[in-house]
Amino acid sequence: MHKFLIELLLKYDFLEIVPMQGSFFKASILKQKVKLSPELLQLNYEKLSPIANPIILSYMQEDTIYIWFLKETSRDKKILIPESFLIYKALQNNHDGIFVFQTDPKQIYVLKEKKLQTAFVSHESIDSPTISIMKDEYNFTNVQIFDKKEHDKIVQNQLQRITFQELFAFMQFKIDRENLKKFFLEKLTYPIVSLLFLYMLVSYTQGYFLQKKQDTLMKEYQTFKTKNSEIKNAIRKHNKTVEKLQKFLKTEFEPVDPFGVVYDLYKVITKKDEATVEYFSFNNNNIKVKIKTHDNAIKYLKRFNTISYLKDVVIENTYKQSDGYKLHSYTMKIKEEDE
Amino acid sequence: MNKHKFLLLLFSFVVFVNYMNYIMPDRDKMHKRIELLTNKIKKEQQLNAQKQDPKQLQLPFTTLFYDGKKVNYSQAMGHFQESITNAAKERCAIKRLKWAQVPLSTQWYDVLKMDTSLECKPKNMFLFINALRHNQKLYNIKNLRIYNNSKKKMLQIHMQLISYRVENEK
Prior knowledge:
The complex is a heterodimer of chains A (339) and B (170). By secondary structure, chain A is an alpha+beta fold. In chain A, 45% of the residues lie in helices and 27% in strands. Chain A has nine helices and 13 strands. Chain A is elongated, with a radius of gyration of 51 Å. Chain B has two domains: 2-51; 61-166, Alpha-Beta Plaits (2-Layer Sandwich), CATH 3.30.70. In chain B, strand 4 (139-149) and strand 5 (154-166) form a beta hairpin. Chain B is rod-shaped and about 125 Å long. Chain B has helices at residues 2-23, 27-50, 61-64, 73-88, 122-133; strands at 66-67, 92-99, 109-120, 139-149, 154-166. Chains A and B meet through helix 7, helix 8 and strand 10 of A and helix 1, helix 2, helix 5, strand 4 and strand 5 of B. Strand 10 (275-283) of chain A pairs antiparallel with strand 4 (139-149) of chain B, so a sheet runs across the interface.
């Protein structure tokens, strides 16, 4: 969003970066922290300017005020940001020292205690003797040299990071509350009033048509409702009856047909087995079966257990009869529907 | 001039706020209601298109149950006994048929109980049950006991056969 805003301001010439060679920089210490109006700035600092009738840009940082003097000609932009200010922002967190940018012309910045002491341009080449002179002059050993590419990159980066507060500081037009009120009343009253009434009209009309549609649909629904009332009542009655019948079946009928169980005894005793069912009873889901055979009782117990709807199969007792046959008694239960 | 404009702005805001609070139709609510009505109409249209006859939805009570409006308890038991004897004909020998006492009707149906004793061969036992199943009326079996009479090579079957009578259902 911020990046977009900066790009927009640059595109429509609301924002301009003032090249270093087009301005004269001066830093000054304020004894008291005061807010300086453009008039006070002009009164106090214009005399320091080498340019006659300059545009003065200023930026306050703690007790220091940074001032840039610009030629008045062709400066009709709304926001003017000095190039040296952007470079200073990038160098701010470095150690004290002299920073040289190999641009055309060369730019030299001197920073002390994170504050910009001076910034100027030089049209001459920066060689070792010149650097030695600068070191002596400012009493710094730290000298860093950057090429043009690095310079351009720094300027672009810092431009993206510029804050609203900084933009506001470099704004050439001042927002006057009284003027704003006047502007608001004079220029915006009719559009706002029109918009409000338009919104009311549109929303009310929309509501009116929605209500009308709703009424039509309601009528249509009522017609269908009346038409279908007979069949609906029949369905309701049918569902009730089905429910009643389901309850009836659950109450009156066992989950398994007793003769179905009798039929399934053929799975327990096959033709190959020498066995007969002597007794079978089915009462309230309890089954009792007596099998006459020479076989072991376990043989048929295992087969009973394979029938899915039976549970709790138990050998109740085994009698040995006088004819040599054994009579095995089994009891078992029918599983509940949800088991 | 500005004073007039200010008053106009103020008036407009007052009107707008009141409109928003008291007059503006709740369009979201209307949209939801229209959507709901559209869905309801769609369902009603589908139901209407099926052209169902309410008579189709009537359950066959008089087929499955003895009709209490046409036959009393005694007549129903008579019909029930007849259906049992018909099913047993040429298959099983009916040894005993005993009507249960007239039940106190606490449900929407009366229970018609018939204690039945039969004697038949295993195959005929299933044929008897099969014949009973072919009756239209619903029947139920309770307290089933089967003995194997090895001397006669016959099965002795004791059970309570049950059918149902309804009076008010159609």
